[in-house]
């Protein structure tokens, strides 16, 4: 069997997605997610110009060799664009391998290690009353874990909370929109929201919160300590993660667990955080961290240091990524949680898939391969629409992490 063609499909069923479809000379196809929110065309060009020509004629069964070829052969190693492109190829080749073997991919990864993949839902709302209602809705749907994001009094917008109850989509304008941020207002408000959620829903429900890279280490230490009475499963991205040593300061002051990694694209980004046990969950994903092959390397390293997985799963990662993530989540020994933002019906129609939600778990498809595909005819009806992530400024205009 040889790779005969590889198509890069950009589609926008409500938001942009990039998908690589690899076609073999025996007609077996495989798909890989190549979506990088706000940088979709960069990855599409990288694939079309620098990867696809080198794939034609290769043996699709040689997944590891192809991964090394695309990683070491790039010379300019790592980075979100490169590693998302590598991820798409890797994921598509695992899909093909599963189809050829007649097995769902998790069976090729060592088989099932649990009954289902515990997922967490989002409860995002501007006011505490609406947050409580949203948490209630997710609990009724069967979720055992809920991430809580709240508006902040005095701020027009904040991360995670959309206007008018629409599904949250941060890439909201071709040229980045601008948001205003106040750490003081945020730190003064968030603990009170979690106090009310715990009062309302009791101690069992797993609660999470995404700080979204916005604090300094000592501010994150303060927040972590203030949240300790509410027993969070994790405080996510408390600080920008370029400075791993900064997490030592947070660790000195609080036992609130920390989750980091959705912006990481290789094991080198998270090595120190893992080996110094500065985090409790690593949130790297199939689509942005080099595919199934590299993600397993990251999770294997993490398993040596009591660090569990907590993969990113926002709606700007396609159903192809989610389908692949579930095969990894089901099989690794140190699974923690999987983020689950359900895609819209429009998106699900473009990406027919076999995974399903039941009783707080997602279950991957039992079909051979990943159990997801791309309907190219339907995808063609949704042309790309330029969209960028916002930027954040403090109240005095200083540019801040978004
Ligand atoms: C967030 C994401 O889901 C999360 O944890 O951090 O929504 C993130 O903001 C987006 O994926 C960025 O495109
Ligand atoms: Mg996040």
UniProtKB/TrEMBL annotation:
Protein origin, superkingdom: Bacteria
GO molecular-function terms, A-Z: magnesium ion binding; mannonate dehydratase activity
Pfam families on file: MR_MLE_C, MR_MLE_N
Gene Ontology biological process terms, A to Z: amino acid catabolic process; carbohydrate catabolic process
Residue span(s) of domain Mandelate racemase/muconate lactonizing enzyme C-terminal: 128-257
InterPro entries linked: D-mannonate_dehydratase-like, DgoD-like, Enolase-like_C_sf, Enolase-like_N, Enolase_C-like, Mandel_Rmase/mucon_lact_enz_CS, Mandelate_racemase_C, Mandelate_racemase_N_dom
Residues that span the membrane, as ranges: none
PANTHER family according to UniProt: D-GALACTONATE DEHYDRATASE-RELATED (PTHR48080), STARVATION-SENSING PROTEIN RSPA (PTHR48080:SF6)
The protein's name in its UniProt record: D-mannonate dehydratase
Organism listed in the record: Pseudosporangium ferrugineum
């Amino acid at each position: 069997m040889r790779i005969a063609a590889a198509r890069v499909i950009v589609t926008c069923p409500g938001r942009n997605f990039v998908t690589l479809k690899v076609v073999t000379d025996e007609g077996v196809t495989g798909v890989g997610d190549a979506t990088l929110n706000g940088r979709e065309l960069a990855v599409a060009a990288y694939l079309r110009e620098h990867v696809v020509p080198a794939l034609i004629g290769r043996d699709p069964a040689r997944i590891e060799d192809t991964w090394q070829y695309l990683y070491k052969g790039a010379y300019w190693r790592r980075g979100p664009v490169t590693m998302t492109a590598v991820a798409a190829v890797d994921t598509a080749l695992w899909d093909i391998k599963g189809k050829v073997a007649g097995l769902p991919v998790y069976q090729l990864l060592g088989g099932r290690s649990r009954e289902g993949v515990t997922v967490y839902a989002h409860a995002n709302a501007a006011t505490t009353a609406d947050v409580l209602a949203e948490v209630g809705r997710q609990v009724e749907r069967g979720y055992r874990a809920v991430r809580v994001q709240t508006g902040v009094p005095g701020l027009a917008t904040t991360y995670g909370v959309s206007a008018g109850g629409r599904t949250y989509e941060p890439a909201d304008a071709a040229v980045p929109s601008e948001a205003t941020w106040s750490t003081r207002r945020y730190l003064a408000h968030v603990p009170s929201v979690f106090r009310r959620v715990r009062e309302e829903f009791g101690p069992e429900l797993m609660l999470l919160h995404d700080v979204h890279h916005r604090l300094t280490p000592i501010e994150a230490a303060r927040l972590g300590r203030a949240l300790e009475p509410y027993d969070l499963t994790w405080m996510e991205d408390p600080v920008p993660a370029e400075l791993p040593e900064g997490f030592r300061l947070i660790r000195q002051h609080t036992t609130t667990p920390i989750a980091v990694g959705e912006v990481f694209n290789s094991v080198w980004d998270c090595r120190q955080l893992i080996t110094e046990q500065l985090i409790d969950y690593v949130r790297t994903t199939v689509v942005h961290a080099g595919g199934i092959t590299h993600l397993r390397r990251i999770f294997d390293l993490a398993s040596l240091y009591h660090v569990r997985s907590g993969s990113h799963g926002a709606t700007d990662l396609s159903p192809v990524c989610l389908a692949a993530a579930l095969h990894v989540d089901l099989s690794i020994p140190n699974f923690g949680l999987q983020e689950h933002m359900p895609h819209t019906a429009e998106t699900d129609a473009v990406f027919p898939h076999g995974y399903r939600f039941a009783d707080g778990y997602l279950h991957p498809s039992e079909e051979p391969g990943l159990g997801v595909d791309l309907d190219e005819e339907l995808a063609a009806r949704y042309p790309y629409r330029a969209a960028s992530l916002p930027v954040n400024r403090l109240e005095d205009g200083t540019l801040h992490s978004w």
